[in-house]
């Protein structure tokens, strides 16, 4: 019996051991190496650093430096001066090229020192550990963080070469005053690239990351200079510089001239930020996705993704080349400020070079601050009679090929209860199309729209893509600018460009191209011209627009030029005053009004919209 029980227990133990062995083997298969854990949870192989982006005017001059997280100018290893690398290796990590991410000797020394002081006084961090801290970890003073540094540093050394680590390190370290990376520090504190710095200046800047507040080059330059001399001495001891070079560097007086962030022409720059989003949305398919979205939640998600994409592009260090003409932009702002000193009256100007079909200037309102509400493209107002050329007269000529001397009734008009009158209530009988146009009579315009057909006329207007024009606007009052919301100054000015482009239309943009730091084009508008007006219609319209300035409502806009033409527009109760005009090269639109719609009758008689246009264009 005992024998049977013994064999039973042995069999039971063997069965249990076999079961445990199989379970343990299965668990062993699931055990991951440290490297496998890092690869699964930490993207060590894809370190991405933000870099400054730049916006340029038409001549290639920087008008805006763009950065949010910090001022960083990324520099590649082959462009880093040798003396910069030597300065950091000799003072931060002498065994950099020998260790595998951490320095065991330095760690033991630090542990002994910290144990004696019962605090963390010695760090012993290698440059690789500092890189890990700057990119993946915090700057918390604790042993847990130090242990994490070691683990990250070990993996970084497996993924990157020593040269790549130096490159990343010198682009991530902090130099105080919002500056990250040695190249940005060189340009910010000295106004020169790192390759142009002296040995003393290199040592001076190399002092800062050790304790950015204590060695702040602006506030604590005495401290920075003391550490500068210490760094120079360490470099001399390592024989990477000579005694003569060290002595000369110690004697050099360091002068810091902090560079102000370039941020000019807030009106134009703010608009270009908006246009960049529009460009990315079009080129990367966001517009197509938005048009097919089936719910507000989907639209919101796509918009959020689009905003993230724009931010990612700007953080990648792109170069945005624009068509800005700084002289015209400045002149427009100055003329508006001088012509309209009243604090409650605003004005915008939109200037398009229609020969190149580029937006060369756009103002947003007096005393404009960057990223505030932009009246040039965000404000929608009724256009008044400025709509007549593109909704009434040009479609009429395109559809009927009528001569300019053909007659139209300028007496009162009524249709289905809509009974508009001419300004001042005058009735003029039958007049020529030219007379009706240059004096901006109302009833002829409504008759013409009725004759062309509302839907037919609006098919021409649809070409311009007015964002706030809806089906509810397809009625006769539109002939006189009666729209629910209206148009932005940018939209309305764009719509006149075909008159300067032989009837061809494509939206005029400010962005010429968005390029990488290497010069590769990431984004650019692919505008395709569309023939909107036939040559015959376009010639007739240019004649009408010219006569408005010669002898009609736009006489005060006259300037010396081979060709000048345009159209005025005034809304009910003088809430808005418009003039959209062109010469041989430019199409420029002017709007005047108050943010809270009120009458401008007190200034209407002096025609400030025509004065502003004339002073800008002459």
From TrEMBL:
SUPFAM superfamilies: beta-lactamase/transpeptidase-like, Lysozyme-like. It is found in: Cell membrane. GO terms for molecular function: penicillin binding; peptidoglycan glycosyltransferase activity; serine-type D-Ala-D-Ala carboxypeptidase activity. Residues 348-582 form the Penicillin-binding protein transpeptidase domain. Transmembrane segments: none annotated. One of its GO terms (biological process) is proteolysis. The keyword Glycosyltransferase applies. Its main location: membrane. InterPro entries: Beta-lactam/transpept-like (IPR012338), Glyco_trans_51 (IPR001264), Glycosyltr_51/Transpeptidase (IPR050396), Lysozyme-like_dom_sf (IPR023346), PBP_transglycosylase (IPR036950), PCN-bd_Tpept (IPR001460). This is Penicillin-binding protein 4. GO terms for cellular component: outer membrane-bounded periplasmic space; plasma membrane. Keywords: Carboxypeptidase, Cell membrane, Cell shape, Cell wall biogenesis/degradation, Glycosyltransferase, Hydrolase, Membrane, Multifunctional enzyme, Peptidoglycan synthesis, Protease, Transferase, Transmembrane, Transmembrane helix. It comes from Alkalihalophilus pseudofirmus (strain ATCC BAA-2126 / JCM 17055 / OF4). Pathway: Cell wall biogenesis; peptidoglycan biosynthesis. It catalyses: [GlcNAc-(1->4)-Mur2Ac(oyl-L-Ala-gamma-D-Glu-L-Lys-D-Ala-D-Ala)](n)-di-trans,octa-cis-undecaprenyl diphosphate + beta-D-GlcNAc-(1->4)-Mur2Ac(oyl-L-Ala-gamma-D-Glu-L-Lys-D-Ala-D-Ala)-di-trans,octa-cis-undecaprenyl diphosphate = [GlcNAc-(1->4)-Mur2Ac(oyl-L-Ala-gamma-D-Glu-L-Lys-D-Ala-D-Ala)](n+1)-di-trans,octa-cis-undecaprenyl diphosphate + di-trans,octa-cis-undecaprenyl diphosphate + H(+); Preferential cleavage: (Ac)2-L-Lys-D-Ala-|-D-Ala. Also transpeptidation of peptidyl-alanyl moieties that are N-acyl substituents of D-alanine. Residues 60-235 form the Glycosyl transferase family domain. The lineage of its organism: Bacteria, Bacillati, Bacillota, Bacilli, Bacillales. It comes from the Bacteria.
């Amino acid at each position: 019996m005992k024998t049977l029980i013994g064999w039973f227990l042995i069999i039971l133990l063997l069965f249990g051991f076999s079961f445990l062995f199989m379970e343990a083997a299965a668990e062993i298969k699931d055990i991951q190496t440290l490297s496998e854990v890092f690869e699964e949870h930490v993207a060590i192989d894809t370190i991405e650093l933000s870099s400054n982006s730049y916006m340029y005017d038409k001549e290639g001059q920087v008008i805006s430096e763009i950065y949010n997280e910090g001022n960083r100018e990324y520099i590649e290893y082959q462009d880093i001066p040798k003396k910069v690398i030597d300065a950091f290796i000799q003072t931060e990590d002498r065994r950099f090229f020998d260790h595998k991410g951490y320095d065991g000797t330095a760690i033991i020394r630090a542990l002994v020192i910290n144990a004696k002081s019962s605090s963390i006084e010695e760090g012993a961090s290698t440059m690789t550990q500092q890189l890990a801290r700057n990119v993946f970890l915090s700057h918390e003073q604790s042993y847990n963080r130090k242990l994490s540094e070691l683990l990250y540093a070990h993996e970084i050394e497996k993924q990157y070469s020593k040269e790549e680590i130096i490159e990343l390190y010198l682009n991530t370290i902090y130099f105080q005053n919002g500056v990250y990376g040695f190249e940005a520090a060189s340009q910010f504190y000295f106004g020169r690239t790192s390759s142009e710095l002296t040995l003393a200046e290199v040592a001076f800047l190399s002092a800062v990351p050790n304790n950015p507040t204590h060695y702040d080059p602006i506030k604590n330059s005495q401290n920075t200079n003391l550490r500068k001399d210490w760094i120079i001495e360490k470099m001399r001891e390592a024989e990477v510089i000579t005694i003569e070079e060290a002595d000369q560097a110690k004697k050099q007086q360091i002068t810091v001239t902090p560079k102000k962030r370039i941020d000019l022409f807030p009106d134009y720059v703010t608009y270009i930020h908006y246009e960049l989003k529009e460009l990315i949305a079009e080129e990367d398919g966001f517009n197509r996705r938005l048009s097919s979205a089936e719910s507000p939640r989907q639209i919101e998600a796509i918009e959020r993704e689009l905003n993230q994409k724009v931010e990612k592009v700007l953080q990648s260090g792109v170069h945005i080349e624009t068509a800005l003409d700084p002289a015209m932009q400045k002149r427009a702002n100055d003329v508006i400020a001088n012509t309209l000193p009243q604090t409650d009256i605003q004005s915008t100007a939109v200037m398009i070079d229609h020969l190149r079909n580029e937006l060369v200037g756009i103002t947003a309102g007096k005393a404009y601050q960057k990223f505030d509400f932009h009246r040039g493209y965000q404000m929608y107002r009724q256009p008044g009679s400025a709509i007549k050329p593109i909704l009434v007269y040009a479609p009429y000529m395109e559809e009927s090929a009528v001569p300019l001397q053909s007659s139209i009734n300028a007496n009162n008009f009524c249709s289905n209860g809509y009974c508009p009158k001419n300004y001042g209530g005058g009735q003029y009988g039958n007049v020529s199309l030219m007379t009706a146009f240059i004096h901006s009579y109302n009833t002829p315009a409504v008759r013409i729209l009725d004759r062309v057909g509302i839907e037919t006329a609006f098919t021409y207007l649809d070409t311009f893509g007015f964002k706030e024009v809806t089906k509810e606007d397809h009625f006769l009052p539109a002939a006189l600018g009666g729209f629910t919301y209206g148009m932005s100054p940018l939209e309305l000015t764009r719509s006149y460009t075909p008159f300067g482009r032989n009837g061809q239309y494509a939206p005029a943009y400010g962005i010429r191209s968005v390029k990488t730091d290497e010069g590769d084009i990431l984004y650019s508008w692919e505008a395709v011209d569309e023939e909107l007006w036939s040559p015959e219609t376009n010639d007739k319209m240019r004649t009408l627009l010219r006569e408005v300035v010669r002898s009609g409502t736009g006489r005060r806009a006259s300037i010396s030029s081979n060709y000048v033409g345009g159209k005025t527009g005034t809304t009910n109760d003088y809430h808005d005053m418009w003039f959209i005009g062109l010469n041989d090269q430019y199409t420029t639109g002017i709007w005047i009004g108050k943010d809270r719609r009120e009458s401008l009758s007190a200034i209407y008689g002096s025609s400030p919209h025509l004065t502003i246009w004339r002073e800008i264009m002459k």
